[in-house]
Design goal:
123 residues, mainly beta, Ribosomal Protein L14, 5-stranded mixed beta barrel, two-stranded antiparallel sheet, globular
């Protein structure tokens, strides 16, 4: 369950390392985010001399969550950390050129084809 003020890792090479959640998009009653949801984030920690700076307000998509995620076939997927991929503006294209760590196949089903193609491993 990703909610307001959650601190997440970043799974791309845009320059951010840690981000905080400002808003989970999807309506007034959309309190918690899960795999494939778009969120508004604030960058908390960065690498030096990269394209994303500290205090930037951006959009991102949730690509990993620690909470169990139930698939249509009845199986569950669970990851070791909560992670996001930062998006370019309001589009579904990633800001970075590489994606680190495993990515669930639900990301491709939700329309993020570029993220799925850049991923090292799809679970």
């Amino acid at each position: 369950m990703i909610q307001l003020r959650s601190i997440l890792n970043v799974a791309d090479n845009s320059g951010a390392k840690k981000v905080g959640v400002i808003q989970v998009l999807g309506g007034t009653r959309h309190r918690y985010g899960q795999l494939g949801d778009i969120i508004v984030i604030s960058v908390k920690e960065t690498e030096p001399r990269k394209q994303v700076k500290k205090k930037d307000v951006l959009r991102a998509v949730i690509v990993r969550q620690r909470n169990n995620f139930r698939r249509k076939d009845g199986s569950y997927v669970r990851f070791d950390d909560n992670a996001v991929v930062i998006l370019e503006g309001t589009s579904k294209e990633p800001k970075g050129g590489r994606i680190f760590g495993p990515i669930p196949r639900e990301i491709k089903e939700r329309g993020f084809d570029t993220i799925a193609s850049l991923a090292q491993e799809i679970v």
